[in-house]
Amino acid sequence: MRNIKLILEYDGTNYAGWQVQPNGTSIQEVVQKAIAEITGEPDVRLVGSGRTDAGVHAAGQVAHFKTATNIPAADLVHAINTKLPEDIAVLEAEDVPDDFHARYSARSKTYRYTILNAPVRHPLERRRACLVRTPLDLAAMRRAAAALVGTHDFAAFQSKPQGKSSVRTITRLDIVADWPRIEVWISADGFLYNMVRAIAGTLIEVGLRKTPPDAVATLLESRDRAAAGPTAPPQGLCLMGVEY
User: pLDDT tens digits for 20-54?
Assistant: First the structure.
């Protein structure tokens, strides 16, 4: 059996998230069906680097699957894409060692959260950014973001506990402005459920001067989800890449 690694890009607007689930069509389900059609293997199982929620996008989602097909990896890219809808695409495919695992072999991930800081809505951005009409204080947001970099217990930024530990290490948290777009770039060795969106929501609260930037360190120590800001809308979030 071969182990094939895929890099995928998708617009998550019309999907119930990455993972196969009973309440809607998922990215995983659609791509698995496409692979099965090409390889003739109906029980193919696609494993992703992690789950993206409903409405969340990816520019560099990584997944792998085992197959007995002899179709070259480069040809699999084009073949699978012929079976996928326009809002999902395989960008790359390659043979990898048998012990490669898209989720467990990952060392870090990078997400981007996009805010449209404008007084009126921009229809072309409605699926890719969170609209905030009031001008944001970027300096305050950057001060708050600095408190989150490093190894911390991020329990205050997870929507529901998963696993034994909520300790993660953020290696990058940058706020880049190209008005009216503001992008929050965040890299870490792992993410809790809704962690990026909770951080984005908190930084927006800071930018709106509803939360002092120095308070972020305190709410981080509190481990209390109610102390942090709201979970930002899904359309602004995009998984940019995974490092192995």
Answer: 999 899 999 999 999 999 999 999 999 999 999 99
User: Which tens digit of pLDDT belongs to each residue from 183-240?
Assistant: 999 999 999 999 999 999 999 999 999 999 999 999 999 999 999 999 999 999 999 9
**CB distance 27 to 17 below 8 Å:** yes
Residue matched to tokens 């809808």: 85
| pLDDT score, position 163 | 74
The residues annotated with a catalytic role in the active site are: 53
Peptide linkage before 123 cis (omega within 30 of 0): no
